[in-house]
Amino acid sequence: MFFERHEGGERAILVHLEGLDEQRQEDPQEFIELVRSAGAENAGFLTISRHQPTPRFLIGSGKVDELRALVKASEGELVIFNHTLTPSQERNLERELECRVIDRTGLILDIFAQRARTHEGKLQVELAQLDHLSTRLVRGWTHLERQKGGIGLRGPGETQLETDRRLLRVRIKQITKRLEKVRSQRDQARRARRRAEIPVVSLVGYTNAGKSTLFNTLTVSEVYAADQLFATLDPTLRRIDLADIGPVILADTVGFIRHLPHKLVEAFRATLEESSQADLLLHVIDAADEERESNVDQVHHVLGEIGALELPMLEVYNKIDLIDGFEPQIQRDEDGVAVRVWISAQQGRGLDLLAQAIAERLGDDIVQERIQLDYAEARLRAQFYAAGAVLGEQIGEDGRQQLEVRLQRSDFNRLLKREGWQPEQFLQQHTLQ
């Protein structure tokens, strides 16, 4: 759509409706940011007060005339609505305005098409685009219609429109099959991580909240990060080491947005499953955004759609450098559990507190026991020392070693299984009262 023009973006007229009910209301500033992220040039912004949309144009016929005049005066090439248009409304507006018209869903799809870098991401975007396009095919190919008869028009009895629809269905089926294979591969990778008992921490949050900047800082990576919406589209996983916890997989995921098109949620389900299967969610929030509470609600809504809302969550309020006099801190609930951390990923402030809070939340399941080992279990004693798990040691009256060990349960279980023990059985026979 936009990326065909190399000298600059298309000149776009932006249309925003006010007065709609709260569920359908959109943020005009976010709309402008979306258009900027897509690479279009803002040639005009028209705000229309409308309590009840019209079936034909969404807006009234008088506003259509006003919009047509604005398009001609500004030499606009494209009109973008900050709302969802039906296929017939889109066609009617294009006929009246004599230029291309797209809605909010089409705009987001275009941004996703530009951002997709991996094969999987491109497949997911194409699937969402084809789903969107399938309802917008019109009888615009009547010169190729084969049902009329006559010279050059005799054929199998299938119109070009029907051919297009059939080809779309075939392509959608192919992509769906490939994405099912991707999902299967991701499931295998997740099962392998579970067998290794490596916890997964997934970054989620509203788009442009600073997830990729935080990810890069924590993992010393170079994932693409920019001050624009949907800078990250493809999921990225990296391994980090935390004190008391050991290795952890950190996952960076696509940002959420209010009224995220359902087709995109469906298409990106394989990607979003990285979040739904995580051991801990880091909900990154732009602390300086005036709409942050609304954005938090939107993230919770999408997490609910993918079945991840019940997972353990740590809120990370980012960008405190944009708030005067605010210092990094951990906030806890009445039980002393870390629930919120205030940081600046850009300046690297508060990252030690974040690591501490993550370790606390993941370390809820830490084993700390006094155990007694027989002489023949010297190898097991050496394994505990190698893992840095021994807090203290003394010799019992019977000459056996008594160790106080502290270790993440996943590492504790893995160590014992490697030595041929079932953890429950070992604790029953070796724990000192």
Automatic annotation (TrEMBL):
CDD domains: HflX
Chief localisation class: cytoplasm
Annotated InterPro entries: G_HFLX_dom, GTP-bd, GTP-bd_M, GTPase_HflX, GTPase_HflX_N, GTPase_HflX_N_sf, HflX_C, P-loop_NTPase
Subcellular location: Cytoplasm
Hflx-type G domain sequence ranges: 199-366
Keywords from the named record: Coiled coil, Cytoplasm, GTP-binding, Magnesium, Metal-binding, Nucleotide-binding
Annotated binding of Mg(2+), by residue: 212, 232
GO cellular component term of the entry, any: cytoplasm
Coiled coil: 165-192
Binding site residues for GTP: 205-212, 230-234, 252-255, 318-321, 344-346
Domain of life: Bacteria
Requisite cofactors: Mg(2+)
Family: Belongs to the TRAFAC class OBG-HflX-like GTPase superfamily. HflX GTPase family.
Subunit and partners: Monomer. Associates with the 50S ribosomal subunit.
Record-linked NCBIfam families: GTP_HflX, PRK11058.1
Chain's role: GTPase that associates with the 50S ribosomal subunit and may have a role during protein synthesis or ribosome biogenesis.
HAMAP family: GTPase_HflX
Name of the featured protein: GTPase HflX
Organism: Halopseudomonas pachastrellae
